[in-house]
Amino acid sequence: MTNPRAGNPILDVVEFSFGFGTKEILRDVSFTVAQGEYFSIVGPNGAGKTTLLKCLDRIYRGGSGEISVFGQPLESYRQRDLARRLSYVPQADGRVFPFTVGQFVLMGRYPHLNPFSSVGRDDMAAVGQVMERTGIAPFAERKLDTLSGGERQKVYIAAALAQGAEVLLLDEPTTFLDYRHQADVRDLLAELNRNAGVTIVAVTHDVNRAAIDSHRIVALSAGTVVFSGTPAEIMRPDVLERIYGTPFLMVDHPQGDVPIIAPQLPGEDTP
Questions:
Q1: Is the pLDDT of residue 4 over 60?
Q2: Quick one: CA dihedral 207, 32, 90, 144, positive or negative?
Q3: Got the DSSP string for 211-231?
Q4: What are the chain's domains?
Q5: What is the pLDDT of residue 63?
Q6: Of all helices (H) and strands (E), which one includes residue 68?
Q7: Helical packing angle, 149-162 and 121-134, nearest 10°
Q8: Dist. CA 182–CA 208, nearest whole Å
Q9: Helix (H) / strand (E) containing 13
Q10: Taking the complete model, does pTM exceed 0.85, yes or no?
Q11: What's the N-to-C CA distance of the chain in angstroms?
């Protein structure tokens, strides 16, 4: 889908490379994300997608090349100031923290809190607003370990929003969720992007959803950018085969203009 409201570039990655020791993970990665975009990063396993997301949020430091955030070099930010710009939601790994929903979301206010002062009225108001917006206010007093996976994912997104950041970095936001909770989280992200102007940068394995949800898509393979463009441009059998190294069967979506990937029957050859 196109984004007529896309604004100025707010993330600019230029020939960025990164590795651990002698192992190169990312090589000469370049792309730009505009304000208000829903931007997806796809690619096969081991392509470097999660590593890239962690480099953008400076969870992983170092590398060569340039990363700019709202026109300033990434390395020039204090971590507290960067957290007011970017908020990272990691991939669900099964760990559950021993807090109530309200306590956990309040922790997201850390970029705005003074270590020598108590939580203020503005902080509580911000927490209340994001909990209402994400639909988790009714279970504010429940412990995280009593929630379903989809409910917890909404809590993690709420905590990220409580930071007040303008950009959400999400690593596989619907992995391990059932269909209903996948739809709930996708709807929430679309609403935040469309109505609240939150810029979304999401790593996903679901190419169909990336094509339906995104304004633009980048594909990584073996640590390099092998595609950058629109959903319509990536959803072609030859382009997808070049990215993933396997043939694809495409069908028209009954409600949209972009084709989608269809599952192939066992033993059948892709036409």
A1: no
A2: negative
A3: HHH-SEEEEEETTEEEEEE-H
A4: 1-85+165-271 (3.40.50.300), 99-164 (no CATH)
A5: 95
A6: strand 64-69
A7: 140
A8: 13
A9: strand 9-20
A10: yes
A11: 27
Closest CA to 6 of 29, 45, 34, 43: 34
Tokens 């989809």 belong to residue = 150
In sequence order, which residues have a C-beta less than 8 Å from that of residue 87 and are 6 or more positions away? 108, 160, 161, 163, 165, 167, 168, 169
Mean per-residue pLDDT over the chain, rounded: 90
Highest mean pLDDT among 84-93, 173-182, 240-249: 240-249
Phi, psi of 211 (to 5 degrees): -70, -35
Give the torsion sign (CA, 40, 45, 46, 47).
negative
Which CA distances in Å does 256 have to 180, 231, 247? Answer: 21, 11, 22
Which long-range contacts link 232-240 to residues 24+ away (Cβ below 8 Å)? 232/257, 232/258, 234/42, 234/207, 235/207, 235/211, 235/259, 235/260, 235/261, 237/270, 240/207
Q: Distances in Å between the alpha carbon of 37 and those of 1, 24, 123, 235?
A: 10, 29, 27, 19
Helix (H, G, I), strand (E, B) or coil at 57: coil
Rounded to a whole number of angstroms, the CA Rg of the chain reads: 19
Pairing of strands 224-229, 216-221: antiparallel
Is the pLDDT score of 5 beyond 60?
no
